[in-house]
Here is the input.
Amino acid sequence: MEYNYHGIILRQRKIGETDRLYTLYTLEAGKFVVVGKGVRRMTSKNAPHLEDFMLSHIAIVRGRGPGAIKSAVAEYDFCALRTHVDALQCAYRTRNLFDRLIDDSEHDQKIFLLYLTYLRLLDHYAFSGGERETMTLLTESFLVKLYQLLGYHFAFGRCALCVRVFVTTDRIFFSAASGGLLCASCTRSVGDAVMLSQNAVKILRLIPQYSLKNLVKIRAANTDIQMLRSCNTHIAGWIMR
Here is the structure.
C-alpha cells in the first residue's frame, strides 16, 4: 500500500550499489527508516529532494520490510542552512541528539512543529548572515524546549534539593539527576553537576515562557550561551545513560 508523509530528512547512508537508507521524522508517524531505491543513480528524480534537513512530501510503498520511497518533492530545502558552516554545525548537533532521544514511531505533532520551526529560523539566520552566537542560542533554546516536550521538567526557580531561593551572590549549579538547579552547599553531595552563571539561569527560566523567535532576541554573552550548551549536553547524557 502507498502512504504519504510530510517528513524531515534526519540522516542517510549508502546501501547496496545504488540505494540509500533514510531516517525520516514525519508529521504523521514520527521517526522511521525507509529505503530509497536507485537514488544514487545520476538519473534519480527523488535524490535532490532527499538531502539532510529538507522537509519533503514523500510517498512510500509499504509491504514487507521498512518500505520504499516511490516519490519525493521538497517543500522546504533549507538551502542557506545547508551551505552555512555555523548553521550546519548547529543543525548537526541538534540532529544527532534528536535522533538519539526520539524513539522510532514516536509520533508527536508538537515536537515535529518545534523542530520545523527551529530549522526555519536557523535557515533564516544563515541566509541573513546571522551571528554564530545567535544560532547557538537558538539551538540551545530548542533543546531545552525539546526536553520539556519529552517530559523532562527541571526546577529552575530554586534549589531542587533544599528548596532555597537563590540570591544574586550564589554560585549556582545544575544536576539533571537531582532535578534541576542546586546551590553550592547541596552540590557537594552530588557527583555530577555543571556550573551556571546568573545570566545563564535567567535564560533557562525564560525559555519555557517564550517562542524560539523571541528567545533569539535576548542579548547574551558567549560565555553564558556556552554554559547553556554544557547544561544541555549534561541533560542529554543523563537521559541516554
